[in-house]
Amino acid sequence: MRVAMDPDVDLALRCAWLSLIGGYTHEEIAARISTSRTKVTRLIQAAQRAKLVKVTVEGAPANCVALEEKLAAAFGLERCSVTPDLGEPDLPLSALGALGAHVIHAAIERHNASVVGIGHGRTLSACVDALPLMDRPDLKLVALLGSLTRTASTSPYDVIFRFVGRTGGTGYCVPAPFFCDSEEVRALFLAQRDIVAVRELAESASVAVVGIGSLGDRYGLMTGGMITTSELDALHEAGAVGEILGTFLDAEGRPLDVELNRRVIATNLESLRGREVIAVAGGPTKAPAIAAVLRNGVVNHLVTDEVTAQELVELAPFVASKTVSTAKPRADVA
Fold first, then answer.
1. Which domains does the chain have, with CATH numbers?
2. Does pTM surpass 0.90?
3. What is the per-residue pLDDT for 224?
């Protein structure tokens, strides 16, 4: 346990264990620790607010299972996980975070992973917050993209080192911008010894966890200051529909021949094939972007919410009949 054991935390944990694991009533716990029932309730609530209590529900509602099967068949996925709709008005961070954490934890255990590649974004951040504590000092958590961003909510640095706090592992970031000012500047960064070492470590990851970006007005890379309004306009003109690890794709999942794709410092999508690549994504207006990324074929495990899953099922008849690979891997993008 990595939580400082001050008396209040210790008592909150004791009450949570007695209630949720031991099955004691609040009255019985109060008698056992010589306090009031009201204080017991407050202590358990404090443990929950501090994210010391994680709840896992085994199984899924029938509609979610049906959607998982339909999406796996439509997009050629090896796995698909759909969380029930919790009625969240905007990005369903609570639902996606809880299910994403469960999926990530299971994948690490299933592969006995020693190296995990990590993307960026608010959804992955929510997954890390919901992860159970793991005793994995051998685990290496490595950024799949440049870690120097303007805001913590989109930074792999922030996600990775909070992941380290949940697992006891070691974090590795790419000390470079996500997007460089020019292709020449990018080449200079890629020649640096430290960056080469981290990128080589990323190549050994057996599990990769990524987000998916849609190019709306609230697109995270734009609100985070990493791309400009004019660059976003140019992407729309070029036919960009979705983004994964800084690579912009058209509706068929093909990487676009645009300047930003040549200035990004990120793992080559082609190099991720053959591993378990988990994409956690959902929410209003996200379905077209997710469909484009799934059609690329690099993602083989989708985690999404029930509403988005239904939209993807409805989109499926109108998209390409099968998942396609990228036309030509860019050897200079890793």
1. 7-49 (1.10.10), 62-318 (3.40.50.1360)
2. no
3. 66
